[in-house]
Amino acid sequence: MNSDYRIEEQDKIEILEEKDVVVCRQACRNWAKRMNFNLIDQTRITTAVSELARNIQEYAGQGEVQIQIVEKDMRRGLRIIFIDHGPGIKNIKLAMSEGWTSHRGMGMGLPGAKRLMDEFALESEAGKGTTVTTCKWLPL
Amino acid sequence: MNHSIIDYKELRALISVGTSIIQETNLETICQRVAEAVVKYSKFQRSVVSILEPDGTLRRVGFGGLTDEQITKLKQMKRSTMEEKKNIFSDKFRVGQSYYIPHDQVSLEGLKSEKEYSPNHEWHPDDFLFIPLYSIGGEIVGMVSIDDPVDGRRPTEEGLLPLEMLANQTAASIENSRNTKKLQEMLVKLREQQKVVMELSTPVIRIWERILVLPLIGTVDSSRAMQIMENILIRISETESAVVIIDITGVPIIDTLVASHLIKTVAAVKLLGADTIITGINPEVAQTLVHLGVDLKEITTKANLSKGIEAALDITGLTVTSKDS
To answer: Nearest CA to CA, how far is A120 from chain B (Å)?
Structure first.
């Protein structure tokens, strides 16, 4: 799926401790602002990043977030990829279901983040880590 | 002539010392190792490395080829200032990057008349030789004073080259060490300020009998959320309040973590017999919360702080009336 995306610009942020989650979502908000996403979309993106970056910190301890401005089929979008090498998710279907939590959260992080973004792909292997690829497109 | 040719063994040894001190962050260690290296590898048998302090004095820090007694004495001596040394750093004493002042040109009042000298002349025990330590920006950060050449001859430009190279690396190391220290101090300060900001930004204000307001500003993380909840609960029991208004206008993002903390806080407040009103949810946050699937049905919310205060007055059985009526 990577092949049809053209990356215009990219950066990455390491998630090592809780405050990096804030740094990361702040950075993503700035990218969204720069791309002229409207305020509601900016808030959606920032909130989704907050959920997913926090998942990295909470479950894997550390990982990284890649931020890309991409182009595909004449549309521009902000693609954000969350990568960790933590314990991975054993049951993706369960993790994606509403109200399920393995930790102290509300159990809405993953399905909530999915609803906030336009694209959402979760790959995970138990013991190897998790990669969540998300994208938000600018309106045509 | 032998003494005017660079001694490659000396050069190599001094370069390796220079490379090793660049990673050192302790100023004292840097100066001491340089002073010892000068004595060990060059023809000079005594050396003192001084650092220019912010008050303009030169502090003697590294010593080579001196007895403990001499070192103690030197340390107790009044520090000289850069101002006093100004006469020394004159072009007529310049040899390469260093300054050589023959004994007959120095007096207490200052410096005597110029006199040509030949490098073949003998070194006099009262002669002075300094290598200034220049920072990358060209400022003097200290100097190396060297004395007592083993061959008893005056210095030459070529002969001093290896020592000058070491001096440059010493200066860079000193600068490096100072910058590292400054950075560390700034980091500590920043952490302290972060703490202060955190504490400052969670005031629970009593605006009327039995009504509290907590204006939340900034990022809410786990530790701060905990502190906020604690603050609220303590203040409620202190003031015997019936209503707490939490205004979240200043919170940029409400994600599930913040939302769950809010819900927990509301539940804890309820256990104390008080009500919570949440105000200041802006349209973007409202939309996002719905998308996230966060359910705030159990929580009383009002559009803004003044509507929240109205509701709180209502709960406590108070009304606001105009003076005229």
So the answer is: 14
Q: What's the rounded Cα separation, in Å, for the pair B104 and B115?
A: 9
B262-302 confidence digits (pLDDT tens): 888 999 999 999 999 999 998 889 988 888 888 888 889 99
Which residue of chain B is at minimal alpha-carbon distance from A50?
Answer: B255
CA of B141, closest CA in chain A: separation in Å? Answer: 38
How confident is the model over B180-189, as a mean pLDDT? 90
Structure tokens at B225: 């959320």
* CB of A105 less than 8 A from some CB of B: yes
In whole angstroms, what is the distance from residue A26 CA to residue A20 CA?
10
Q: Both tokens of residue A15? A: 């998630």
CA separation, residue B57 to residues A35, B80, B134 (Å): 55, 6, 16
B45 phi and psi angles, rounded to 5 deg: -100, -5
The pLDDT score that the predictor gives to residue B169 is 92
B51 forms beta bridges with B59, B142
- Homologous superfamily of B2-185 in CATH? GAF domain (3.30.450.40)
Is A47 in contact with B255 (Cβ distance < 8 A)? yes
- How far apart, in whole angstroms, are the C-alpha atoms of residue B316 and residue B312? 6
> Pick from A40, A54, A105: which is nearest to B284 by CB?
A40
CATH 3.30.750.24 residue ranges for chain B: 205-315
Tell which residue, B67, B30, B35, B57, has the closest CA to residue B131: B35
How many angstroms separate the CA atoms of B116 and B101, rounded? Answer: 11
- ∠ CA B97-B98-B104 to the nearest 5 degrees? 145
- CB proximity A42 to B under 8 Å: yes
- Domains of chain A and CATH, by start: 6-137 (3.30.565.10)
**Residue spans in chain B of domains classed CATH 3.30.450.40:** 2-185
User: What span, in angstroms and rounded, lies between the C-alpha atoms of A131 and A121?
Assistant: 8
User: Could you give the CA distance from residue B311 to residue B28 in angstroms, rounded to a whole number?
Assistant: 67
B232 and B265 Cβ atoms separated by less than 8 Å = yes
Which residue does chain A place closest to B283, by CA atoms? A40
Q: Residue A99: which H helix or E strand, with range?
A: none
For chain A, the maximum distance between any two Cα atoms, rounded to a whole number of angstroms, is 41
Helix (H, G, I), strand (E, B) or coil at B112: coil
What is the residue whose two structure tokens read 């013991």? A127
Fold of B205-315: Transcription Regulator spoIIAA (3.30.750)
Q: What is the DSSP string of B270-293?
A: HHTT-EEEEE---HHHHHHHHHHT
Per-residue pLDDT at B200: 62
3-state SS class at A75: strand
